[in-house]
Amino acid sequence: MYKNVIGKKSKKVKNMVERGMVKRFAESIGDSHPIFIDEEYGRQSRYKKNIAPPTFPRVFDYGEINELYLPNVGLIHGEQTYHYERPLLVGETIYCFTEVADYYEKKASLGLLGFIVLKRYGEDAEGNTIFTEDQSIIITETIRKELSK
Amino acid sequence: MNRLIDMKIGEVLNEISLEPVSRIDLIKYAGASGDFNPIHTIDKEATKAGLPGIIAHGMWTMGNLSKLFTPYLEEGFIQDYKIRFADMVFLDDVITLKAVLDEVHENYLDFDVMAVKANGKVAIKGNVRFKIYQ
Lengths: 149, 134
What we know:
heterodimer, A: 149 residues, alpha+beta, Thiol Ester Dehydrase, Chain A, five-stranded antiparallel beta sheet, 4 helices, 5 strands, 19% helix, B: 134 residues, 3 helices, elongated
């Protein structure tokens, strides 16, 4: 049912790796290491700046894919992957967008499940990819039937 | 401090056991991440969705697990981080974070990582490829 949206993308959205957000995020996962939050420590580090934890891209805005409708309940987050060219630096600007990478259906004990794979990208101002992310979402049979009505 | 490149295959990073999961942990993560799906914070919404109670954001657990590698970020960085969400995490669950070195390559180390509940069930598991600076 989502086959027709494979390959659809959002428009790029400008995001900042904002110092306050990085601090709050690091605290929320119990990882308040000075490499993330202490300015002087960051300056002395090999990065010359503070960096962000690897799952920080959760906070970015990736824009909307107009053709994609996902219900806000009944979805199961199945898998998540990140790939980095380098860590994100506090203070830098990242341009983010998302794409429907795949959709397939699989028989399971819970019925026929739908799997939608969203790929997300983070680029610098020159268009170099800094990170990519794959999020695999499981759509249960109940929700799938609801949607096809 | 120890270096990751001195580790041998099969050796583990120091485990971390988290405090029992509390509602405020999840409210803080919701605020910090922007994921306000109410099944993570509001009992009524969780039961309406067919759950026995609120569940932790999978990404909260995944975020916690990566901190095993934070002390080594001068030596390299997490190049690839792949996780499968296997079992739900509820309030008061006690989560232990683990990583074991699986493969050694010239420029990177591959770890098996997991977050395990007190009952022994795996909440999330996957792999970390830690790229070493040359």
